[in-house]
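Class, discuss our next protein.
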Amino acid sequence: MSLSRRSFSILAKIFAAAALLVAGTQLAVSQARGKGPLGLVRGEAITFTSPQFVVQALWFKANDETGWYWTGSDEVYAVFSDMDPTHYDRETSIYGNVDEGDLVNFKPADQCMAPQPNCDRGMADLNVGFSFWERDSLGFGLEFCPGDFQGSHTRLLEGKCTSDDFIGRGSIIYSRDDLVAMLPAVGDSREFTAVMDKDAGKYRFRYRITRLADVERSIVIHLPPDILTTPTISLQASVIVTGFGKAVHLTWSGATTSTVDIYRDAAKVATTANDGAHDDPVANGTYQYRICDLGSTTACSAQVTVVVT
């Protein structure tokens, strides 16, 4: 039987979903019966082992990005985003009195860049954005902040306040293949330095990428009946003469259950041990046989016709 257009459409969706998971992963498919064409199995879980990575901020080294050098004038914060549309941008603490040449270590609570909101788990690939800002203050701890953008990705581009002075921004983008090549073993890490040069400020930002333990993810295959058309059981039939008359001698292979169902002319006539052979006494006539895994109407052999004369 040929596959219907609906079947091809469903297969295309299955392969598209699987392709997103398979990239950079190791695939393990559990064994099962009832395979359809292309080796797909109804209701079977396909497990993908996916590498996981995190990005952590370490420190920044500052110059006076606003032009004039005033001792203790800079109050700097960063905004991190893993660019997931369901996650918000995260703003770090404000690090005050930052002068030219100062190296400032991020507090532990500020270090997680991706994935948000914490780095206890990882991501399979990285698309991370960061930006640095100097807070614009009116003094006495008051901040001129006409709009607060909590709950969006606007802070990454505009800072917490539209009046804050922009220092610089950058991105960290790696595919799974790139990350696995760079960090082949769980626990491996590598540090990088980004240079931000807005108005010759030349801030330097240090971050680390670390590989966490791999995780397993599963998808379950759901196939419509019309694409389970390729038999997994091979059946042969011949006519023999016994001491009681004539019989159809059936031999098969490929069944996966301990017993099998025998169908003659679309009606189940016996359930017998899956030992590869069975004799069915019949009168003269033309008969059609098939063998199925116990209780299945899809994990079956092709239909075989035999003429008894």
Observations:
- The radius of gyration is 33 Å.
- The chain has three domains: 5-50+219-225, 52-209, 231-308.
- The chain is about 10% helix and 45% strand.
